[in-house]
Design brief:
binds zinc ion, alpha+beta, single chain, 27% strand, two-stranded antiparallel ribbon, globular, 342 residues, eight-stranded mixed β-sheet
Length: 342
């Protein structure tokens, strides 16, 4: 059975975004920042720049995957289908998430005897946890109804922090914006005394950032639908071949929507950023083959050079703004190729 590996790297300009906030101090909400080291003429320079965490992107991807899988009639557990990714972290969560699946499988929690049983049950019952992994780690080792002390499944997709592109590091900005919820002229505002503070007017600051960000996303389909944790059963397929193909298709369609709709991040209701894809490279391979980092702008030519010397039956699909093909066309070609290899 073949297992396509999909590697995506790209550059996208995001203006006036508040997609990943870290903390609020009083009425001040901070944007995430990370240190980045660059070589500037032989000297290493550390800069603190705006960033969007891999966790944030992973959450968005899994929410898209839950919807995509659900619309295809594939199993998604109760909590994942609501965008709550506790992912079987203890017995209570597992039993609550999979109430319907216990009925479907005709078993009870007590029938799950070991980590193999548990991983098989969760893979079959939830595409999000099949693709995105889970960690069953009950307090004190658990063993109340489910006789398993721990089990884990590593995610089959990989994301990293979005940081500004190398040549834009010094020009990436974070700026606090003042906002007010203004209610003067209503009965809800109390004027304490002339010239003094007015109650009822709330001011707050939100840090927004603007930068050309880089995105990295890999999807390894090898273990989708297969056992990974128990070494004697590792690699065993626990869904049908047809179902595995459908799950890979759902994972690819969620990836398409992640890129086209930039379907992740916070504060989108009032800080929806302007989004302009500058370039994108998608490699579809029969085995692990990743596109070089888009941190430096020559990444597409470096990817082509890499392909000349190393290939896993790799096909490279590239998009450049103002090029011949639209980003939708490039994505369509890459996703069809990947789906046909499954
Ligand atoms: Zn789930």
């Amino acid at each position: 059975m073949r297992s396509p590996f999909i590697s995506v790297r790209g550059r996208v300009i995001l203006n006036a975004e508040a997609l990943n906030m870290t903390e609020s101090v009083g009425n001040y909400v901070k944007h995430r920042r990370v240190p980045v080291v660059v070589n500037r003429g032989g000297e290493y320079l550390t800069l603190f720049v705006p960033a969007i965490s891999g966790e944030s992107i992973a959450h968005g991807y899994q929410a898209l995957l839950a919807r995509e899988a659900g619309s295809r009639g594939l199993n998604v557990c109760d909590l994942c289908s609501k965008g709550i990714f506790l992912k079987s972290n203890n017995e209570k969560v597992l039993i609550k998430s999979f109430e319907k699946h216990f009925d479907r499988e005709g078993i009870k929690p007590e029938d799950i005897k070991d980590a193999y049983d548990l991983e098989k049950f969760v893979i079959r019952g939830c595409v999000v946890e099949d693709v995105g992994g889970f960690l069953f780690a009950p307090a004190g080792g658990g063993k109340k109804r489910i006789k398993v002390s721990q089990a884990k499944r590593t995610s089959n997709f990989y994301v990293g922090y979005m940081i500004p592109a190398a040549e834009a590091l010094e020009n990436a900005v974070i700026e606090p914006q003042l906002h007010s919820r203004y209610a003067l002229g209503t009965e809800f505002v109390e004027r304490e005394a002339e010239g003094e503070r007015t109650q009822g007017q709330m001011i707050y600051y939100v840090e927004i950032a603007s930068a050309p960000y880089i995105l990295s996303f890999d999807l390894d389909t090898r273990y989708i639908g297969r056992i990974t944790y128990d070494s004697t059963h590792a690699g065993e397929l626990v869904v049908s071949e047809k179902e595995r193909k459908e799950r890979i298709r759902a994972a690819l369609e969620a990836l398409r929507r992640l890129i086209l709709e930039l379907g992740f991040g916070a504060k989108r209701t009032r800080f929806l950023p302007t989004i302009e894809w500058e370039s994108l490279a998608i490699a579809v391979s029969d085995d692990v083959w990743t596109v070089p980092t888009p941190f430096t702008k020559d990444y597409i030519s470096r990817a082509q050079k890499k392909l000349e010397s190393v290939s896993a039956n790799t096909k490279l699909y590239t998009y450049i703004r103002d090029g011949k093909k639209t980003i939708e066309e490039v994505l369509e070609e890459a996703i069809e190729d990947a789906a046909n290899r499954a």
